[in-house]
Fold:
Amino acid sequence: MKKLVLFLLLIIVPAAVLAAGLLRVPATVSTTEIFRALNPIITDAWPREGREFITRVNSFKNYYGVLLAGLPLIFLVHYVVFGPKKFPESGEKVFYYGVFLRLVHWGAALTMSLLVLSGLAVIFAKFLGGGALVLKLRAVHVGAAFSFVPFGVLLFLLLLKDMFPAPYDLKWFLVLGGYLWRRQRPVPAGKFNAGQKLWFWLGTVGGIVMFYTGYTLYQFKAPVSVLRQYLVIHLSLGLAVFGLFLVHLYMSLLAVKGALRSMISGYKDREEVAYMHPKYYEKLKS
Amino acid sequence: MARMKFLCDIERCIACNGCVVACKEGHQLPTGIYRRRVIIINEGKPGEHSISIACMHCSDAPCIAVCPTGALYQREDGIVLVNKDVCIGCGYCFMACPFGAPQFPRDNAFGARGAMDKCTFCAGGPAPTFSEKERRLYGQNRIAEGKVPLCAGMCSTKALLAGDGAVIADIFQARVAKRGSGLAWGWSRAYKD
Structure:
């Protein structure tokens, strides 16, 4: 009897424990549990940001459409109601833009126009029918971006000293640059008004952001979550650039008589400087 | 009309990558283009599982929602296809897709993206059925021939099921019932508490 107990204790029990250990099957995991582990790998950040990304990207098409249709309409109303800014001409000229600055400006203007047009072609690709035409315009967008860089850098270096914000810039914004005045009065502005300064900073510093996000989107080598963020940044800043591009176009071509001429010849009428850039005019006189 | 669906039985998938190779070879895809891929968790450890992923041909497809050209469209039977003559390769669909299905060839000048390529459910594309253009741009049209997609057809363990959603759901449910692990779906399975 004792022997039997000893036998059981020394042989059977350890053997049973060993066998139980060897034969133990890992606890069954439900298919749902496995999918729960697989989903984050498959979909990455999509469950957190996917839906928002889709609605955001689609809303941009509307915003661009509103600017494209709305701004020219506003310009037309402004032109009809207030008319272009004209100044009494004394024939006296003020040298305003150097020849190098003018060359750089027109280089930037050409590449920026190409950027805006080809960018719009991608956003409104459906309207153009997509395909080879828009595919080529996408290539133009990339080429124009690289061509804009040297002009953007030079413009930044040439104009920086006149583009720092001044206290009277706020006043300029408050009176909307005097564009809603029927009577000619000097507006609070230095060599460049607050609107021009905004355009300058958006074109240069904003341009760096546009270039970086755009290049990443072109390379397509970043994580998809980063690409989503960059596309939204690119489209948001692009919207601001597009809006100010149209405003700049209207101001220079139609709203201010002589603005286009001054960027070609380099000379502004003395009266225009006196009214539109009085702080600079005072500095010139003294 | 039947609603075409893929279903990968993760209890059966052995990560042999046969589906990936079959798809690549069958459609003569260029290097770097993967219409289908296999994802593995716990590789070499207990609890290793794998799944074969391609375009899921979503009902409310995000790619169609964001495409600025209208190149993406959905057939009556739920198959999502891209018209490569209209696609501009902008990549919006890739960013909108939860599954990373859209692929882009980079054989153009300066590595620019060409028209998007993705799983066609072996249903070709908008080009005339069985035309040389369809074969070159989109690969085989096995659906028009009355065959299942190549990946599912060759799957050695029959983990990857493709076809009428109602039929493959029945097959999968029968399998789960046979395995004895209870209900395959339902509220109590999908959500805790």
Notes: Residues 17 and 23 of chain A are 10 Å apart (CA to CA). Residues 46-81 of chain A form the longest helix (36 residues).
